Amino acid sequence: MDDPAYRTEVAGLSRFRSSAVEGLTGLADYVSRMKPEQDAIYYVTGDNVDVLAASPQIEGFKARGVEVLLLSDAVDSFWPERLGSYEGKTLRNVAQGLNDLDKFAPDTETAEQKADMDTLLPALKTALENEVTDVRATDRLVSSAMVLSAPEGGPDLQLRKLMQRSGQAMPEAKPVLELNPAHPLAHALAARLQAGEDITPLAQILLDVASIQNGDTPKDVNAFAGRIMTYLAAAPATAG
């Protein structure tokens, strides 16, 4: 894809894994399956196709029947931006296409009640003020409770990871923690907060688990393990 004269031809010959079909597919086939209101080719990058297929990052797109290409090669973090578009359709990382979800109605309507986020989000942001840029509610999650994303204008988290692995310095950029307001965990956290409980330890666990889902390890593995053990030890016993 480095030679501008042949980028489109090479892209047309390339084959990828996808959230919508078995085996490999090409960009032309993807375009033929696009929704009428869709104007972008969506993709997600990572280290493992199976992990990407189950990633929280693409739940909102799958729930709306929007296909996502699963790109697991290191070069996949670079060539889509260089290619730019294919057959007039912009290539867009799902992490940068979140606002696009408003254009698509979910395949199945759900009636889950959303937790009270007005007090929960500020409390989580205060608890994690040194760890994240922001904590916000999102409608792009379906079965997952939370997901990490890059701050506005910041580099994609996968690209940042690749650059760091190669030893290249990257400016400090804290991630954004996004929470699913319809998930039982959000309801449980809101109830604990309303009951006057300090949710700081749970907020830290939340962030650590989101990091693991993103393919990273918690910054302090021992502290993470300690928080989990403390939480489990304090959990009420259930009758056998």
Could you describe the 3D structure shown?
It is a single chain. This protein is α/β, with parallel strands linked by helices. It folds into 2 domains: 4-103, 3-Layer(aba) Sandwich (Rossmann fold); 117-234, Four Helix Bundle (Hemerythrin (Met), subunit A). Helix content is 37%, strand content 13%. It has 10 helices and 8 strands. The strands form 2 sheets. Strands 1-3-2-5-4 form a 5-stranded mixed β-sheet. Strands 6-8-7 form a 3-stranded mixed β-sheet. The mean pLDDT is 86.
Features:
37% helix; Rossmann fold; three-stranded mixed β-sheet; globular; alpha/beta; 10 helices; five-stranded mixed β-sheet; single chain; 240 residues; Four Helix Bundle (Hemerythrin (Met), subunit A)
What's the short version?
The protein is an alpha/beta fold and 240 residues long. 37% of the residues lie in helices and 13% in strands.
How many structurally independent domains?
Answer: 2
Give me the CATH superfamily of the largest domain: Heat shock protein 90, C-terminal domain
Give the averaged pLDDT, no decimals: 86
Determine the fraction of residues in helical runs and give it as a percent range: 25-40%
Helical run tally: 10
Strand order of the largest sheet: 1-3-2-5-4
> If classified by CATH, what would the architecture of the largest domain be?
Up-down Bundle
User: Major sheet: size, sense and barrel closure?
Assistant: 5 strands, mixed
The structural class is: alpha/beta
The H/E string reads: HEHEHHEHEEHEEHEHHH
Poorly predicted ranges (pLDDT <50, ≥5 residues)? none
Radius of gyration over C-alpha positions, nearest whole angstrom = 20 Å
> What gap, in angstroms, lies between the N and C termini?
61 Å
